[in-house]
Amino acid sequence: MLKKTDPQVYSLIREEAKRQKEVLEMIPSENYTSTSVLEALGTVLNNKYSEGYPKKRYYQGNVVADKVETLAQERAKKLFGVPYVNVQALSGSVMNLAVYFALLEPVRGKIMGMSLAFGGHLTHGQPQSATGKFFRSVLYTLGKDGKLDFEAIEKQAMREKPDIIVCGFTAYPRLIDFKKFGVIADKVGAYLLADISHIAGLVVGGAHPSPAAYAHIVTTTTHKTLRGPRGALIMVTEKGLKKDPELGRKIDMAIIPGLQGGPHDNQTAAIAVSLREAGKPAFKKYAEQIVANSKALAKELTGYGFDLVSGGSDNHLILIDLKNKGVNGAVAALALEVANIILNKNGVPFDTMPPFYPSGIRLGTPAITTRGLKERDMVKIAGWMNSVIEEVRNIELPKDKEKRTEVWRDFRREVVKNKKLLAIAKEVKSFATKFPVPA
Ligand SMILES: Cc1ncc(COP(=O)(O)O)c(C=O)c1O
User: Fold this and answer.
1) Residue to probe by mutation, ligand 1, list 90, 91, 93, most atoms within 8 Å of CB
2) pTM of the predicted model, to two decimals?
3) Multiple choice CATH, 281-432, 1.10.1060.10, 3.30.300.180, 3.90.1150.10, 3.30.70.330
């Protein structure tokens, strides 16, 4: 139908589908969701208003919406082993904001989360985010080795006495010891919020330990390793209900009337579909393969002299500090894009460069693993990446802001014509298109 009624939008969607097929998609927070999930998203459930919660709606006609939402809730509870879940947060940022609204006094409440510059998320109390503007926040960092320094975190927590400690990160390549975080939170009387947005698929697939026994609240987006639609889950654990039996109700109230109006019922249905998929044995294999691929890629990249933050990867993600290669992260990410390898520029711990021109790149294996790539394919990817980085080693971004902007502008204009990169792009495209994409 769309092809006829709006050929412009139709052709843009086809163009994007083609792009997704022809590249190696290695942004660690992205994935290819299944055709069933996409199908649920594009349904008449989109048409309904169902403000409120099952059996407690403000509008009529919600018999089906109630069933859809209850099904999503029950599947999430079972999969994550938690007694309470809210499936309505429209995305990850609102999800975390809702937790703070539920638990903290405005202005006085204090969040302790990881600094963005070290791998935390904006919504973990960064000053630029509403979470750092409407509440007090203190930020912890990593140790010199690029790993969590629990001694320092404990000292900071004892000194700062936060109301909530947030763990779970956006750019951390190692396993998270949720038990240690739980002990620290209990010691200072704080709630522990585990935001497992990045690793939720690994957690349900048994490839990363679960925080359910140690955190009071677990949040996750549904569209990263979990491979669902864009959306989010806010879960209260047994430990959380023990600390405050009203926690679930408070979170529900923070979502509506606190932050949102009507839930997206089509999104809720698609979440339910993805949770069913994530409960299947094949998903366990998928989660294990994500990690195996990430470890294999980390090993190959190290062989080419890439400096991996923390020295490697235990999960789906790799963070590379490019300083030893003399290449800026922005330069590297753009050159790799020209070569059809899609990842993102990223700050590295103790980075002295500004966020737009950071010293590193971040990449991951969830999406390419969905397409069926295995360890042997990581050898090829590392080789291509190395060739691309070698090709742009001569591009130096000056410290002076104006000169830097000029060099960057010239680089952007020229890089798309680089013959070596275009030759790699061709190889990558012919390789990538051999692996199917759900569409
Ligand atoms: C750890 C973490 N929490 C929350 C979010 C926010 O999710 P969204 O982009 O859906 O708002 C992200 C997104 O990257 C994330 O990495």
Assistant:
1) 93
2) 0.97
3) 3.90.1150.10
Question: Which residue type is seen at 112?
Answer: M
Please indicate whether the domains covering 39-278 and 281-432 agree at the CATH topology level. Answer: no
Q: How far is the CA of 84 from the centre of ligand 1 (A)?
A: 21
Q: CB under 8 Å to 419, separation ≥6 — which residues?
A: none
Atom of ligand 1 minimally distant from the CA of 219: 3
Write down the domain spans for the chain: 39-278, 281-432
Q: Cα–Cα distance between 204 and 201 in angstroms, integer? A: 5
The closest residue, in CA terms, to atom 5 on ligand 1 is 92
Nearest CA to ligand 1 atom 13: 92
CATH for 39-278, among 3.30.40.10, 3.40.190.10, 3.40.640.10, 3.30.1330.10?
A: 3.40.640.10
In 287-417, DSSP assigns E strands to: 307-308, 317-321, 341-342, 344-346, 360-364
Task: For helices 419-432 and 375-391, give the axis angle rounded to 10 degrees.
Answer: 170
Q: Going from the first residue of the chain to its last (439 residues), give the mean pLDDT of each consecutive group of 10, the final group possibly shorter.
A: 97 97 98 98 98 97 98 98 98 98 95 97 96 96 97 98 98 98 98 98 98 98 98 98 98 98 98 98 98 98 98 98 97 98 97 94 98 98 98 92 94 97 98 93
pLDDT of residue 294: 98
The residues annotated as belonging to the active site are 49, 51, 195, 221, 224, 230
- Which residue is associated with the tokens 């001569």? 394
For ligand 1, atom 6, the nearest C-alpha belongs to 92
Question: For residues 350 and 319, is the Cβ–Cβ distance under 8 A?
Answer: no
Pairwise CA distance, residues 367 & 260, whole Å: 30
